[in-house]
Every structure is written in C-alpha cells, then in structure tokens.
User: Fold this.
Amino acid sequence: MILLICVVRSPFSQNNWSLRSFIYLVLLGLVIDNSIIAVGRFIGEGMFLEYLNLSRYWIHALITPTLVLFSFGILKPFNLRIFQHKAAFMVTLLFTMLLIIFELFTETIPLHLKPLWEYDVLRYVPIESESGPPFMILFVTLCLLIVGIILSVRINWIWMLMGALLITLASVIPIPLNSSAITNGFELFLMLTLVLT
Assistant:
C-alpha cells in the first residue's frame, strides 16, 4: 500500500500516463489480493470469503499480463528500431490479450476452491494441486527478464533484471522457511525494482 501511494504521488506520475502506468494497476491488484488474504480469518469460512478469494484469481488473470505492456513502455523511450513501429505495439497488445485469455480459460474459469488454514491464515485455494508456475507467469517473467537484460546492457541499470531473476529463482528453488509470506516478500521486491525502473 505504501509503495502504491508513493508511486502515485511521485512527480513522475503527474500528467505522465503511458504504458508504464500499468504498474499502478498491478500494485493495486496485489494490495487487493493481500487484503483479502489478511481478512480471511475474521470473515470465516463461507461463500462470501470463497467469492472474495475467487476474485483474487480473476484479478491475477486480468492484471498480471499487463506487465508485458509495462515492459514495452519501459523500452519505448530508448528509440530501439524494433519498438518504434506500430506493429510492435500491436503484437505486444495481442500477446498480452492472448495471455489473459489463456489464463482465464485454462486456470481461472475452471477453478474450484477449498478452504485452507495455513500459518493462522484462512484463504481459499484450488482443489487441484498446482504443478509449477502457470504458463502465463512464465511468459510475463520472461518479458521482464529480457527487458531487464536490455536495460543492464544499454544503461547499466540492473534493478529490473535483479527483481525478475529473484522472482524466477524463488519459484524454482524451495525455501526452507515456515511461512508462505516469503513469496509476498519476493513479489514486493520485484514491484519495488519495477517502480524504480
């Protein structure tokens, strides 16, 4: 919440809306997502909390792929020839829409949830166990990595690459900590690096 407030109130945000502004939407989605998780134990099991948790997955499916548009917006000012053509934007927009549609139809719409108490937190999770990160997340992360590499080569800015690398390693390497909040820590670090970028 603090990061979202700071970035919206920063001088760089005032009257400067662009594809990079999708970061505000992603941050808002994460605030809503974590708020629902935080209030779960107070609401208790039932249809209301289940619907709230279902909205988390819809928000994730609709908003997370917009990081592809954010990545395109980051590279736009560098006058790279490939990104100056209108066709490049149309391809990026189409790719983002395909990721959203794929995530909705393969992960979100067929979703069935069950209540789970974990670390004194109540939330609803998919009945079917997840086997690795979703297809959509892999491609979004790949876009962040590619743009991070371009920035580190062209202007020696390593932070976007660091954020993307850390979130990638966190999804691959099991971390022996007795808390699932560590994932949120990695997400927060990634968001911080994207905001700084």
Residues 86-108 form the longest helix (23 residues). The chain has a mean pLDDT of 86.
